[in-house]
Amino acid sequence: MTAPALAPDLDHPYDLVGIGVGPFNLSLAALAHGVPGGLSTAFYEQRRAFHWHPGLLIEGATLQVPFLADLVTLADPASPWSFLNYLRHRERLFPFYFAERFHIQRTEYDAYCRWVSESLPGLHFGHQVDAVRWNPERELFEVDFTQLDVHGQAEALGRSYARNLVLGVGTEPYVPESLKPLAEAPAVPVIHSADYLDHRERFLAADHVTVVGSGQSGAEVFLDLLRARPAGKERVTWLARTETFAPMEYSKLGLEHFTPDYTRYFHALPEPMRDQLVPRQWQLHKGIDADTIAAIHDELYRRTQHGGWPDATLTPGVTVRTAGRVATTKVELHLEHVQQGARSRLTTDAVVLATGYRERPLSRMLAGLDPYMRLDSSERPRIDADFRLVLDSSVTGAVYVQNAEKHTHGVGAPDLGLAAWRSARILNTLTGKEPYPLPTRTAFTTFGLTETPQPRPTKTPEGLIPLEG
Q: Which end of the chain is more exposed for a tag (fewer CB within 10 A), N or C?
């Protein structure tokens, strides 16, 4: 192993070090770049380049938020890192103008984010963060990382020092325990939808395919398989635990749950009430886009024009209890229909698990902060209104989190539409100023009988030099 990639610089620590470069930390890095007076930042990402859900960039699939929910616009419309400026650099503004599309394709959003990541300074790809510690003598965070080569092998070790941290490591695919043995066996065609495009040809060649999961990913995979398989020989089954293949709540007032007003309201609620609300609000973010539902029905209807019904089965209300292999080439799913109280078995040749994502565990990376962290009654990190981990008062720096705070901030935590606002809120708090003035009201709905106070930038954290300008 070679010498450290970066020598520690105790005299010039970073103002902010970010761990992970997904859309949320990329948003923060872009807005930090525009803070008057400048911020010294570094963002570390294990992958070699930016990629946003590459296994689900299915042709024609669109974002479920408008293009204005890019990395910066809802906090700084004049930012050079906006989606419209990306189009201008690509000489595509007029085609986009005439296309009249409010919801862009996922592939275009991925390309836009990659353009920002390749142009923005301070991003370090191929760097795996191994551990984080608080150094009380120096009043700085220590960030240990491994620099990786093109093959993902360790190339060098390094350490950075920072006054503040922001965690944006994202989520990871979730596979139910009953299906993990199958998914982990390479000879059995059982994959998570996150890897769908990597295995698409194999699934198109399979005699019978089963999709498990009722959300947007399951719907998109089912539609793609349906379109690609011959009429009368589709042999596709779609199973869902939910009682219906439910549309996502997309009414104008329903969308106000993804505003800063609702985020503040939710955070001020007692912990038990927050825990009750999150699972009840699943249709706000786990339903299916109405256009996708319509496209599935249109495709199924088109296949009835010459008589007969397509060989496609769509069954909600079904739970996959267990699963096993039949010989070496087939999978047997053991199903239960809750409403009927019935059980059956389904033999299939391939399974796509559109079973969602879970927050990536931070326990190993943050083990060095365990003595300082404050937890709630369910042993989860406490997170304040400004997206900071609640730490012991002896820690003078701050650790911010992005998309790891659903239990404290509600359903908007993973929503792209709140990315720019959250990034601006973090930067306003970090600097103790308002480089990004934020609106005092964002929703027509008043979510409670008592007013949720509008926070202002807090005192500059000790150890961070106030910015000029």
A: C
Which three-class secondary structure string do you get for 403-428? CCCHHHHCCCCCCHHHHHHHHHHHHH
Please indicate, yes or no, whether the overall pTM of this predicted structure exceeds 0.85.
yes
Can you read off the two tokens belonging to residue 206?
């399979």
Q: Which two tokens stand for residue 16?
A: 């902010």
Pairing status of strand 236-239 against strand 357-359: unpaired
Q: Distance between terminal CA atoms of the chain?
A: 44
Torsion of Cα atoms, 396 then 402 then 405 then 408, to 10°: 60
Mean pLDDT of 184-192: 83
Q: Report the b/e string of 245-279 with b at 16+ CB within 10 A.
A: bbebbeeeeebebbbbbbbbbbbebeeeebeeeee
CA distance 84 to 76: 12
Tell the residue number behind the tokens 């325990």, with chain if given: 177
Identify each DSSP E strand in 111-222 by its residue range: 123-125, 127-135, 140-148, 154-162, 164-167, 171-173, 190-192, 209-212
Structural contact between residues 87 and 432, judged by C-beta atoms closer than 8 angstroms: no
Listed residue (199, 132, 138, 142) closest to 6, CA to CA: 142
